[in-house]
Structures are given as C-alpha cells and as structure tokens.
UniProtKB/TrEMBL annotation:
<keyword id="KW-0808">Transferase</keyword>
<dbReference type="GO" id="GO:0032259">
    <property type="term" value="P:methylation"/>
</dbReference>
<feature type="domain" description="Methyltransferase type 11">
    <location>
        <begin position="68"/>
        <end position="167"/>
    </location>
</feature>
<dbReference type="InterPro" id="IPR013216">
    <property type="entry name" value="Methyltransf_11"/>
</dbReference>
<keyword id="KW-0489">Methyltransferase</keyword>
<protein>
    <submittedName>
        <fullName>UbiE/COQ5 methyltransferase family protein</fullName>
    </submittedName>
</protein>
<dbReference type="GO" id="GO:0008757">
    <property type="term" value="F:S-adenosylmethionine-dependent methyltransferase activity"/>
</dbReference>
<dbReference type="InterPro" id="IPR029063">
    <property type="entry name" value="SAM-dependent_MTases_sf"/>
</dbReference>
<dbReference type="Pfam" id="PF08241">
    <property type="entry name" value="Methyltransf_11"/>
</dbReference>
Length: 211
C-alpha cells in the first residue's frame, strides 16, 4: 500500500512539474525577456542549423567592415565574425544585460579578439548615428525584444544603404519568429527580405537595406 501511495505521489509531483514548466514557457512566450545570465549555460549549447559557419556564410563579413551584433550573450558567434573582419574591422556587440557584457569582455580579452567592443545597450534605442554599420546580425534574439518593430527600425537606421542584416531563429525557442512574420515586419520597416536559408524549424534570414 505504501509503495502505491509513493508512486501516486511521484506521478502527481511529476505532472505538476510539467504543468508548471508549460505555464512558465507560456508566460515567457507572452512576456519577451532575454535569457538571464544565471542560465547562460543554455546559450552555449550546440545549435543545429544555426551553426557558426552557417551564420557567418549568410552574413558574409568582410575584412575591415564595421559590424553590429545584437544580443551576443556569452559570445557564441562573436569570435567567428570578429576574426572574419580582421584587425582593420570592428564588431560592436550590444547586450541589454550588464553581466553578459562583462562576461563577453573577459572572454574576448582571453581569446585576443581586440576588434570587439562589447557595450550595454537596448536594441530599441541603439547608441549609434545613422548609417554606422556595413552589416548587423542577431541570432535567437529578435523574439526576446518586447518591441520587435522598433528594433528592426533601429537596425534599418544604423545600417548603411545596401547594408546587410541577418536574423537567426530556431525551435524550440519559445520566442521563435517565423520566417513569414520576419518578412512582414522587416518589409514594414522599409527593409528588403532577400532569402531564408534553412527549414521551418530553424533558419537564417537574409535582409538588406535598399540603396
């Protein structure tokens, strides 16, 4: 009898845990926020489809360019892009969380990537003048921004005419932005959606600023 009660209790506890997890995921979906620094181990896990090389290939970073990364976190893609633009280029990495910025600064110093400038900032009000960058990218970040249209408008503003914007999305991210939604929002801000590389569950979107 006692063992049956134990099994029932464990089953109930498990069901409650699942419901709590689903409830939190739903809340997180409806209340976009970045992954907290305390959970940073999750942002360093391997990313199928959104590999470092796939993002780099679509972004096409070139030596000497000035590039903007939104939401670098711990720098999963930062080093790859920094090395592609070389010492003559500059990669500005903007994150809303001071702890992430401090982590990234330490990591870039350790790796010797001296052309990276991590700063604390909000994608909805970027601290740069118009036409500042040749290209920009954000991976698993757009859906975490409460006002995505404003963020896209800001990216349009700071990119040069002909500039490139890359957006990466991957399920099961609760903030996943579908390619069709991204296209509508980008075009609504005067950007041009060029192509999607990947599948329905994960893709890299290539966007450009009209000349």
């Amino acid at each position: 009898m006692g063992s049956r009660r134990t099994v029932r209790s464990l089953a109930v506890a498990g069901a409650l845990a699942v419901l709590a997890g689903l409830g939190y995921a739903l809340w997180w979906r409806r209340n976009p926020t970045p992954c907290p620094y305390s959970q940073r181990r999750w942002v360093d896990l391997p990313r199928p489809i959104l590999t470092r090389s796939s993002v780099r290939d679509v972004l096409d970073p070139r030596p000497g360019e000035r590039i903007l990364e939104i939401g670098p976190g711990t720098g999963y893609y930062t080093g790859t892009v920094a090395r592609a633009i070389g010492p003559a280029g500059t990669l500005h990495a903007v994150d809303v969380q001071p702890e992430m910025v401090e982590h990234l600064q330490a990591q870039m110093r350790e790796r010797g990537d001296r052309n990276v400038e991590p700063i604390v900032g909000d994608a909805r009000a970027l601290p740069y003048p118009d036409d500042s960058f040749d290209a920009a990218y954000l991976v698993l970040v757009l859906g975490e921004i409460p006002d995505r249209e404003r963020a896209l408008a800001e990216l349009h503003r700071v990119l040069k005419p002909g500039g490139r914007l890359v957006v990466g999305e991957l399920l099961p991210d609760p903030h996943f932005v579908r390619a069709g939604t991204l296209r509508r929002r980008a075009e609504g801000q005067g950007l041009q959606f060029d192509e999607r590389v990947g599948t329905r569950v994960g893709y890299v979107g290539s966007i450009s600023v009209p000349t």
